[in-house]
Amino acid sequence: MTSRGGLGSVTPRLELRGISKSYPGTIANKNVELSVMPGELHALLGENGAGKSTLVKIIYGVVAADEGEIRWEGRPIAVHDPASARRLGIGMVFQHFTLFETLTVTENIALGLEKERDIRRLARRIEETATKYGLALDPSRYVHDLSVGERQRVEVVRCLMQEPKLLIMDEPTSVLTPQEVERLFDVLRRLAAEGCSILYISHKLGEIMALCQRATVLRQGAVTAQCDPRRETSASLARMMVGSEVLAVKRPGEHKEGDEALTVTDLVLEPDDPFGTRLDHVSLNVRKGEILGIAGVAGNGQTELLRALAGETLAPRSDTIRIEGANAGHLGPAGRRARGLAFVPEERLGRGAVAELSLADNALLTAYLGGNVAAGMVQSGAVRDFASAIVKSYNVVCAGIDAEARSLSGGNMQKFIIGREILQQPRVLIAAHPTWGVDVGAALTIHEALIRLRDAGAAVLVVSEDLDELFEICDRIAVMSKGRISEPKRVGETDIDEIGLLMGGLFEDKQQAVSHAAD
Amino acid sequence: MTELTAILVSMVLSATPLLLAAAGELVTEKSGVLNLGVEGMMIVGAVVGFGAEYNSGSAVMGFAAAAIGGALLAALFGFLTLFFLANQVATGLALTIFGLGLSALIGTAYIGKPLPHLPLLDIPGISDLPVVGPLIFGQDAIVYLSVAVTIAIAWFLSRTRLGLVLRSVGENHEAAHALGYPVRRIRFLAVLFGGAMSGLGGAYLSLAYTPLWSQGMTAGRGWIALALVVFSTWKPWRLLFGAYLFGFFSIVQLHAQGLAVPIAPEFLSMLPYLATILVLVIISRDAKRIRLNAPASLGKAFRATA
Predict the structure, then answer these.
(1) Is ipTM over 0.85?
(2) Which of A251, A424, B101, B255 is most buried, judged by most C-beta within 10 A?
(3) Looking at residue A246, what is its pLDDT?
(4) Residue B277 lies in domain
(5) A229 and A118 fall within a common domain
(6) Residue A442's pLDDT is what?
(7) Quick check: B167 and A62 CB within 8 A?
């Protein structure tokens, strides 16, 4: 005698039994068991590289499992490709969007639907679905004109139009402002109430505790725990995820105001890439002994600003960018390095390091000042010592300093690049997404190193999309939106909500109002 | 026929092989594959088409064989680049060299043999009108075919679902794969189509433009066709315009040489190339338009396992 409504009596909508998948050199999934009930908001939790993405790709038919069984509503099934997954009623929103920039919203959605052939009728249906769930979307716009948040809406609407029974969301909030996250959660809750199961993948504990009813935790490809996240604390969830006690970064000490180290005055730059962002009168200054954070949703001019600061793109006037008071706008990257600037770029391979070169050679790429080169000759002993020092102090997992850069995982490469720059003791450090893709322990190492550098009197500029990170390490936070930058706020005097509103672009109106008043 | 009419009619003749080959390559490139072997596929089409018509006596057989010959060579390219992930640029260049050699080998038997001209459209009354008569109502069937195919491609790419899928594969093959589209199969078909069209273009040279076979008779037209695809920023309508522009300058410079214009003939021979490059450069200045129409995955190998 079981009650009809009880979860125990219902067949799981999706059940995974003993799923394993290995790639040469790594095991992505090891004997994974998972079940998702109808209408359940189920979290799949794990660090970067824990095997979450591989697992959902198996469910969605993008990747084939080596072993194991997938059951759908009680029956064993084989998902050969995404089309058959969609026919079953599985929809997926990818972490890296599967959108086509040069097509319109309607065309993009048409590609994801097999039935609808009439484009005009489809456009109407898109508007209906979008309105129903409160997601504003213009079907006739081109995707390259949309903001990242709007692009995600396209993906979500595309899934919703297939009326899925299971919706997989892979790290959906990494590109959203906190307010957009709330709106997305409302949509997901409503879907779940309508009976759709949600498999929600994330490494952000707060979101999972706020949204999900059940969580499956993955570590190194295997399931390590099942729990109800609403009854856990972030510390206990983190422990399940990482496997050991997670230490918090010591909050930065009192901030001593130093001289201006990096100053940008009214920088205006047209983008090279036609889909890039125009830098619109950007001004900022970073003082010695402080960490300035720049928050913002990707694609709001951060890339362009980083390149302008590094010297990849030269400033229109030499006094637009000053390093320790001296004009540097006309200097290329080497000239700026000579002035004491160091730089951790966004792309690890390609800008931060050369994939085919060894770690030792990569160390030399930016550390050619100091003792590594004498009279034009490379001092290979010194270079090797330097590379070994990076590997040792930043705990870089690699096959030695002769290993090619591309053989390292993204997180380890990041540690190596950060280490290479910090060990050169720069007077100004610019770091883009310093902990993107690295595990919790390494993130802690990197955060502490940045704070030590600041305490030693250097100026540090951190560009990141991770607000938690910025609030943890920064003294002041500014926000970039549509190529503009906001007035920086002291961390003690602001909160995530305010920064989130600025990320949505609210400060523009205020600035416009000011400039109108001045007219 | 007046001088002007003669120039315009020969402009169309000279543009047609370019238009055929370029329209095929446009479809190939829109799917994300860069096949630099157009010249090789054209010349193979030229010799195979010539041989087929010479032996069967049927021009239809000639063009059909040329299309198949071009497609076979393209299939070789497709297998190497799509399934064995060979580099597209190197394979395409090799295909051109291979095609030139192969056609010379096949063609030894046909050197100096003549073929009849293709029949021209003749509508009593209308085809005799001044200028428009011969220009629009007095051409051979392939000229009409080349224009019709170009228009059909424009319609296919912008209006049909399959055209949308083809564009999506060329734009972002990872995303297309994730959505469940058979990236390699679509690309292979696009490559075959490109090969068949190049074959037709080559055959137009050896069966209609100058109905005889001579070694290396494509004379770099495959490269011009490739340039035209870029010049048109992957838009069929501009391709039509570009092909006729090039054809026009090729003929004008010939007439200028005939009229003994006081410019060295060497310089006049450069005219079509210079004019095309000039227009190409002027049009290429709009980076946004190029970025919008250029297939973003062009020339990139696709591995299905990711």
Answers:
(1) no
(2) A424
(3) 66
(4) 3-112+130-293
(5) yes
(6) 78
(7) no
Answer whether B164 sits within 8 Å of A107, measured CB to CB. Answer: yes
> Is residue B124 a part of any domain in this protein?
no
Q: Is the pLDDT of residue B9 over 80?
A: yes
Residue A118 lies in a domain: yes
Q: What is the pLDDT of residues A233-291, one digit of tens each?
A: 888 888 888 777 666 666 666 666 778 899 999 999 988 777 788 998 999 999 999 99
Q: Which residues of A touch B161 (CB under 8 A)?
A: 110, 117
Note the pLDDT tens digit of each residue in B165-194. 999 999 999 888 878 889 999 999 999 999
CATH number where A515 lies: 3.40.50.300
Q: Are B171 and A111 inside 8 Å of each other by CB?
A: no
pTM over 0.80: no
- Give the structural domain span for A412: 348-425
- Number of compact structural domains in chain B: 1
User: Which segments in chain A show pLDDT lower than 70?
Assistant: 1-9, 25, 115-117, 175, 245-256, 506-519
- Shortest CA gap A82–chain B (Å): 5
Tell if the CB–CB gap between A82 and B292 is shorter than 8 Å: no
Which of A100, A159, A162 to mutate to probe the B interface, most B CBs <10 Å?
A100
Q: What CATH number is given to the structural domain containing B277? A: 1.10.3470
Q: Is residue A455 domain-resident?
A: no
- Is there a single domain that holds both residue A222 and residue A183? yes
Beta bridge partners of A166: A90, A197
User: Could you count the other beta carbons within 10 Å of the beta carbon of residue A179?
Assistant: 15
- Structural domains of chain A, count: 3
Contact A302, A432 (CB under 8 A): yes
Percent of chain B whose predicted confidence (pLDDT) is above 70: 97
Find the CB nearest B171 among A81, A84, A102. A102
Q: Is the pLDDT of residue B202 over 90?
A: yes
Query: Within this chain, do residues A236 and A151 fall inside the same structural domain, yes or no?
Result: yes
pLDDT of the residue at A508: 52
Hey, is the C-beta of A113 within 8 angstroms of any chain B C-beta?
Answer: no
> What's the pLDDT at B306?
43
Mutation for testing the A interface, residue in B168, B174, B303 having most A CBs under 10 Å: B168
